[in-house]
Amino acid sequence: MADDATHTPLPTPVRRAAVAFVFVTVLIDILAFGIIIPVLPHLIEAMTGGGVSNAAWWVGIFGTVFAAVQFVSSPIQGALSDRFGRRPVILLSNLGLGLDFVLMALAPSLWLLFVGRIISGMTAASFTTANAYIADVTPPEKRAGAFGLLGGAFGIGFIIGPALGGFLGTIDLRLPFWVAAGLALTNFLYGFFILPESLPPERRAARFEPHSAHPLGALRLLRCSPTVFGLAIVMFLFYLAHYVLQTTFVLYADYRYHWGAQAVGFVLALVGACDGSVQAFLTGKLTGRFGERPVLVAGMVFGTAAFAVMGLASVGWVFLVGIPLMSLWGLAGPPIQSIMTRCVPPDQQGRLQGAITSMGSFAGIFGPYLFAQIFAFSIAPERQVHLPGIAFLLAAGLVAVGAVVAARATRHVAPAAPPP
């Protein structure tokens, strides 16, 4: 196992400032993405005119193509950040996203909206590069907490973004896209003038290697050790299960609980509040006290329970009970990231994060279509029995398998030791 704890860490004040900069960068990006979540399925439904079942089919197609594009793009972006630094990749990502949201706001037809989602998949690089950024500036024993703090940015973004998007969507379905464009372009300006580079030239890859930048080449990096390979499988199952929320939640909540765009936005804000609190305030403390492995496995168990509750909930208030459990599922992510970063050297952190993102995107090639089709099948008018929660129960099963794999893959992992 490679240990990058031997490099000279940044001074603590500089490290804290750098983490704060990337925290704000991710926060603004998540705000931009969160704003369009409550309205994109409804905009697709309005453009297709075929009802909820037909809209679910198209939402699945949109999600699958978005993930396929990310699957190809993420390793390239990670390798580029290893060679040229994290800052330029983040800046180009933010600029591309801003211009793409403008395109989607103006899209007069479904196919042009579809093109916009393809461009989003190509330019959504800041999340991958932000994780590499955190690995650059944080010593190994602090990474789980730092990744949790970054997860807190996701949570805060989902507190404000979907609620705001739901409100704006009641005014006009396209208004959230304009606001998202403004946020992404503001983020570009913020990064251009303030965000420092985290990877100095002497720690960068000597050259850009195309053979390792394509998806299959990047995924080979995940076979560098049994631990990394096992955790890569866990990440795949983690991401795959999560697509049930991204793909079906809006239409599921409308169908089963009669929640409109604004109600969905508020529910997603509650999800963000719970998740952000857990990520920002509990992850670092719990991993410091109990260790990464117990927190990882416990998080996966909580995720299994959350999806089971959501799938079995026949009324809205029972579904809401699953939200705190869902937030505790988030405890699993930072320890996975932390353990994996200790297995590769500094000049491969971007490739590692690109490979991890590719795992999520690979799951996204199947997940949106899988869950959308299961949901559409379960509520089709010709069915005598409607079982709309089956998709969530499938997600519960996937996370349960992930908990078992995580426990086995990390059984020999030693705790991160502070640098001498």
From TrEMBL:
MF (Gene Ontology): transmembrane transporter activity
Signal peptide: none
Keywords on record: Membrane, Transmembrane, Transmembrane helix, Transport
TM segment ranges: 20-44, 56-76, 88-107, 113-134, 146-169, 175-195, 228-253, 259-283, 295-320, 356-379, 385-407
Localization of this protein: Membrane
CC terms in the record's Gene Ontology section: membrane
Designated name of the protein: MFS transporter
